[in-house]
Each structure stands twice: as structure tokens, then as C-alpha cells.
Amino acid sequence: MIVPALVLSASTGDLRQATEFNQWKNVLFIIQFLLSCFLGFLLMYSTVLCSHYNSALTTAVVGAIKNVSIAYIGMLVGGDYVFSVLNFIGLNICMAGGLRYSFLTLSSQLKPKQPVDEENIPPDLKS
User: Fold this and answer.
1) Which residues cross the membrane (predicted)?
2) Rounded distance between C-alpha atoms, residue 118 and residue 127, angstroms
């Protein structure tokens, strides 16, 4: 994916803008950039590790809960959220829908399977 990404970024001019970015000489920016790259890798690794030790469903439910918490914390911290009633209602509907979907998916996976009564199966269906 590196080669197609480089070709696409060179053709759109993003590669030139990235190399000409004036903060590359700022040590604090470079430290924060490398820390961001490391934390992104750590996040992806922890997601894969969670899926390995648990089920994909567990990873999806944990991801939904994480997204809800990040959205609500982002509303309170950061200062770039502009409150409006319609926006707030829309975010709450979105969060409730995501949590409801995760809950329904989880509850359908946890239901015990109905035991099959082999004595009452017609002989033509047994094989």
C-alpha cells in the first residue's frame, strides 16, 4: 500500500505539501508527530490483540463503547464543539443506535442454542 499511497499523494500534490511543511524543523512538533505514530501503531496492535484473545464481537462492542465515550468527552473537552440542540439530538440518536446495535448483536450471540430432540425427527430427515 505504500507505493499506491505515494503515487496518489504525489499526483494530488499532498506529498509536496507534506515535504514543504514548515514545522519539520520544530523539535516539539517532531516529538509529537512520532508519538502520534507510535500511539496509532499501539492502538492497531491492541485491536488485533483484542480480536485474537476474544471474539470479533467483543472487539466491536468495546469499540462502540470507546467511540461513545470519545464523542461525549470530546464535547466537554477541547473547545471546538459548538452546541446546538439539533446537533446534540443527532449525536445522541447516533450513539444510542450504535449502542443498541452492539447490545442486540451481543445478546443474539449469547443466546443458548435450542437442543435438538433426535427422537422426534422424522426418519426421512435423518441422514
Assistant:
1) 28-49, 56-75, 81-103
2) 11
